[in-house]
Specification:
By secondary structure, the chain is mainly α. It contains 17 helices and no strands. The longest helix is centred in the middle third of the chain and has 46 residues. 45% of the residues are buried.
Length: 467
């Protein structure tokens, strides 16, 4: 098949819709919730906590969902947490203090974390393996569009309709994501469902075979009875010795039938045993015995092979969350509100162009080149807006951030998905997101602690550029 494998299928577009609209909720609210929190009378540290607690909630549900997706129905997990995600959006309308806001943000994050985990896990089964880097780049354009559109739309809504406008938009986005995943035939790609369906069909086939064999045996017995009756009528006047010979014939026929049934039963038993042995062998092929022995407890949450790249991407996500959480407050401080309003639009445009190209480069030339370029680009962009904040550096930073965290996030997901065993793909994806979520959850509160009346928000970008 190779390059002829299709990327743009019905399942792809439904996955794309689910990812796009769940991401829109996250970025639309995360870019304005700190401003909403400060309007309730909080400081920068608490506002950072309000922003980050959402990600921490996602971290908690990712820990659960990584294991659950390996054992339970993908459809059940996806729809359950997408429903939680939608209901949490409605709770924002009831918020009247910071404590309640933090609780709602946490619940909302729980819904988001497992939902996005389910979508990405599904993608590992839906997307063509030979073009996975390219296909995943196209899929992740959903988050790319959300990154640009979410903050831009929420900023306009917040400025014109206050927080209520943002909450209405978030609820609509969340409902649309839920509908997309409800329409998608998730069970078609769930290996647990496919295995169960295969076992049921095998049982039905065995029953059909048994019924056919029983029918054949009955036919043989009926034929034998007819022959016996004819023989009896022909030989009714014969001597007792002849009658004994007929009896011996009948006995031999009965013994032949019995032996035949025993042979068939033995064959059926051997087939069942061989099927069980093949299933055990297949299951063992997907498991790394050495990891299971060394990391039995750890592997219930993490995929060990995914930890190095996950840690690297976690550090770059700190720089990204510094922009996402505080850019509106920093823009107001340095009088660059107009320039920063275009930040995420430019970020998205660059990412739409660069991500598919980066995916093809990654498939052909390996992972290292993309990762090195991304890390350097992001560091340069953050350093520029920290030391020389002006319109030009803000736009340069947007391009660098797209080439940095934007490209690295997609590349890293492709790396951990491709390298993990098929049975461990959900754990690998969960591991990556857990590391990123931990940074993005605690990062805003940590970075907010460096803000003061004297220094302003510049230290946030000094620190994040060094990671």
């Amino acid at each position: 098949m190779g390059n002829k494998e299709r990327i743009f299928t019905k399942s792809f577009f439904l996955l794309f819709g689910g990812l796009l609209f769940t991401s829109l909720v996250m970025y639309a609210l995360m870019s304005t919730v700190t401003e909403f929190a400060t309007s309730l009378g909080t400081n920068a540290t608490v506002a950072g906590l309000v922003s980050g607690i959402y990600i921490f909630g996602g971290l908690c549900s990712r820990v659960y969902s990584g294991n659950a997706l390996g054992k339970k129905s993908w459809r059940k997990i996806a729809l359950t947490f997408l429903t939680i995600h939608f209901l949490a959006c409605l709770l924002y309308f009831l918020v009247n203090n910071v404590i309640f806001l933090i609780i709602v943000r946490f619940i909302h994050g729980v819904g988001f974390g497992a939902s996005s985990n389910s979508i990405i896990t599904l993608a590992s089964a839906v997307l063509p393996k030979q073009r996975f880097g390219e296909a995943f780049g196209y899929l992740m354009l959903g988050t790319t569009i959300a990154v640009g559109l979410g903050p831009y739309v929420s900023g306009i809504l917040y400025d014109n309709f206050s927080s209520v406008g943002c909450f209405v938009a978030a609820s609509a986005f969340s409902a649309t994501a839920l509908i997309c995943m409800f329409i998608l035939d998730i069970n078609k790609y769930d290996p647990k469902y496919s295995k169960s369906k295969k076992e049921k069909s095998e049982v039905i086939e065995v029953k059909v075979i048994q019924d056919n064999e029983i029918s054949d045996d009955i036919t043989i017995i009926d034929d034998n009875k007819e022959k016996e009756e004819i023989k009896e009528r022909k030989n009714i006047k014969e001597k007792n010795s002849k009658t004994l010979e007929d009896t011996e014939i009948n006995t031999n026929v009965g013994e032949d039938i019995t032996e035949r049934e025993e042979i068939k039963e033995n064959e059926e038993t051997e087939i069942k045993e061989n099927n069980k042995e093949n299933e055990i062998i297949k299951e063992k092929e997907d498991i790394k015995p050495e990891n299971k022995k060394s990391y039995g407890i750890i592997e219930k949450v993490f995929e060990i092979g995914a930890i190095p790249i996950s840690f690297t991407i976690a550090l770059t996500s700190l720089g990204y969350v510094s922009i996402l959480s505080f850019y509106r407050l920093y823009a107001d401080e340095v009088k660059l509100t107009s320039a920063f309003s275009w930040f995420f639009i430019l970020y998205s445009v660059v990412l739409v162009i660069s991500r598919p190209i980066a995916g093809k480069i990654q498939d052909k030339n390996g992972d290292k080149l993309i990762c090195v370029i991304g890390i350097i680009a992001q560091s340069v962009g953050l350093a520029l807006i920290a030391h020389i904040p002006n319109t030009i550096t803000v736009l340069i930073c947007a391009v660098c951030a797209a080439l940095g965290f934007g490209t690295l996030n997609s590349a890293a997901t492709a790396i951990v998905t491709r390298k993990a065993p098929k049975s461990r793909s959900s754990y690998a994806i969960s591991t990556l997101f857990i590391f990123c979520d931990a940074t993005m959850g605690f990062g805003p509160a940590l970075l907010g602690s460096f803000v003061s009346a004297k220094s302003g928000y510049a230290p946030v970008y000094y620190i994040s550029s060094t990671n």
